[in-house]
């Protein structure tokens, strides 16, 4: 029989003590009908050995290894493809879930059949596990109108959270999953908001490790997909395009689709968007120049000067 709950963890060269802490927190759950799917992204350290050892001790843990690094987002999707549960939880290899996390989130989605996502209040912790300031609470709308939920998902917060919470697998299958792009999680959040509502439990049952200053969207690109390492790309232009595509496919009649498109237009016309779009153009031009002979000479000269 398939487990009711699939927890998935994409891993890549995670420190042993951090990985062990995550695994221990999963095994300590009071809700026991779960599987843990681990996908190692071609780590060269002891990460796959640690995961394989734990899988050998607990039949609920299933370990898979990619022969080459396929990028962070594709590895997350691979985890979902291998999962079997009615509910799906993606957690980082360095995150911690408190013992009641699964029980409380499953009960919340069971009680709210219209909801597609559930999470609890979350605390930050530093790389050594010491507590930092908590993440702010989020008020989610229970509106039956997709346009209201979309507005909440893309306008009322700049934080993306759907990859770190409980999802209905049936809803996730209705989306394109994570695309190999630095803003892929924001695309997924918009898609899920059009399908159903979100729920937050006002208890601190999730701890997320914070590794210093947030990586820029341009620096994050190679982690998401290795081919972005040298290619010119336009993340903010693409984000707007994906939002418009999601709105155009929103459920409901023409009036509701029009409201969804208006939400995305409002997002596009935010004052700070112009600077983001211009920065995309500048960064893409810089990458193109650096691939020319002149650009390579300039880069080499800068390295020698440093």
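^ structure tokens above, recovered residues below v
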């Amino acid at each position: 029989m398939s487990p009711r709950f699939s927890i998935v963890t994409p891993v890549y060269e995670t420190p042993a003590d951090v990985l062990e802490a995550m695994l221990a927190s999963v095994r300590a759950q009071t809700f026991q009908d779960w599987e843990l799917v681990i996908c190692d992204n071609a780590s060269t350290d002891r990460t796959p050995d640690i995961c394989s050892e734990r899988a050998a001790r607990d039949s609920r843990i299933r370990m898979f290894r990619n022969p080459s690094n396929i990028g962070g987002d594709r590895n997350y999707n691979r985890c979902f493809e291998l999962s079997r549960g009615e509910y799906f939880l993606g957690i980082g290899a360095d995150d911690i879930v408190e013992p009641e996390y699964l029980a409380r989130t499953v009960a919340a989605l069971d009680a709210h059949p219209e909801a597609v996502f559930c999470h609890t209040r979350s605390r930050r912790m530093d790389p050594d596990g010491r507590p930092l300031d908590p993440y702010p609470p989020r008020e989610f709308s229970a509106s039956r109108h997709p346009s209201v939920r979309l507005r909440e998902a893309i306008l009322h917060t700049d934080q993306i959270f759907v990859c770190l919470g409980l999802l209905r697998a049936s809803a996730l299958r209705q989306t394109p999953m994570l695309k190999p792009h630095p803003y892929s999680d924001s695309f997924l959040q918009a898609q899920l908001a059009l399908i159903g509502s979100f729920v937050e439990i006002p208890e601190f049952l999730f701890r997320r490790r914070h590794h210093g200053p947030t990586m820029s969207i341009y620096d994050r690109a190679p982690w998401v997909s290795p081919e972005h390492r040298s290619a010119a790309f336009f993340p903010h232009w693409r984000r707007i395009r994906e939002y418009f595509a999601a709105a155009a496919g929103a459920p409901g009649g023409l009036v509701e689709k029009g409201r969804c498109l208006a939400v995305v237009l409002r997002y596009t016309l935010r004052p700070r968007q112009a600077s983001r779009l211009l920065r995309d153009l500048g960064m893409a031009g810089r990458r193109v120049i650096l691939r020319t002979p002149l650009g390579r000479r300039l880069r080499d000269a800068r390295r020698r000067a440093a």
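The two ends are 60 Å apart (CA to CA).
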